[in-house]
Amino acid sequence: MRVAVLLSGEGTSLENLCEQIDAGRVPVHVACVIASKTGAGGIARARRRGIPAVAVPRKQFADGRAFNDALHAELARFEPSLVACLGFLSLFELRGVYDGRAINTHPALIPAFCGKGFYGHRVHEAVLASGVRVSGATVHFVDAQYDHGPIILQRAVPVLQSDTADSLAARVQAAERRIVPEAIRLFAEGRLRIDGTRVRIRR
Fold it and tell me: Which residues of the chain have pLDDT under 50?
């Protein structure tokens, strides 16, 4: 199964996914990587692995529609079965082409601490400021809103009294490394079914 990865940063989730593929745990092929920033480290990671990678810089487009026009043009070249937004900071428009075929990861337990403006350390800082005792990571299907759509998998982590945004982020990222490849494996095996606002996982 062909997967397109959209990212904006260093590509650590991409690297983790590729390692799981190499180990034979996830039966997919990363067909391409598209970055929303020219200097995204994920581009170099992809090219080192021989994966076609291109930057489609968000700031070069007047609005989200024009940006998504460019994204869809690039994706059409590779015909992916799944689009995986792994640290992608812009809203990906499904446009009736990728409905039920695009996933996103978020560093919190949505619907808490999510939505436009909640990304990176901003999420962990908000978690710490709120005083909650549990955070975590989420993988969900993409819909027309930021960090919204049927949840596929979540993994909780404790919020410790000694935590900083950095230490909490490290714990959440470890959870993401577990659930992102698992969600993609379940999709590739045809075991996910969207049922309204829920995702049913076939055993």
Answer: none
The answer to whether residues 14 and 90 belong to one domain is yes
Phi, psi of 55 (to 5 degrees): -100, 135
- As given in the structure block, the two tokens for residue 7 are 């990212």
Instruction: Give the Cα separation of 76 and 70 in Å (integer).
Output: 10
d(CA 72, CA 136): 31
User: CATH number of the domain that 117 lies in?
Assistant: 3.40.50.170
128: left (phi over 0), alpha (psi -120 to 50) or beta: alpha
Dihedral angle sign, alpha carbons of residues 116, 166, 87, 54: positive
- End-to-end CA gap in the chain: 20
β-bridge pairing 102-106 and 82-85: parallel
The pTM for the full model equals: 0.95
pLDDT of residue 116: 86
Radius of gyration of the chain from its Cα atoms, rounded to whole angstroms? 16
Q: For strand 82-85 and strand 2-7, is the pairing parallel, antiparallel, or unpaired?
A: parallel
* Of 72, 106, 124, 140, catalytic: 106
What is the domain range of residue 87? Answer: 1-98
Phi, psi of 199 (to 5 degrees): -115, 125
148 among known catalytic residues:
no
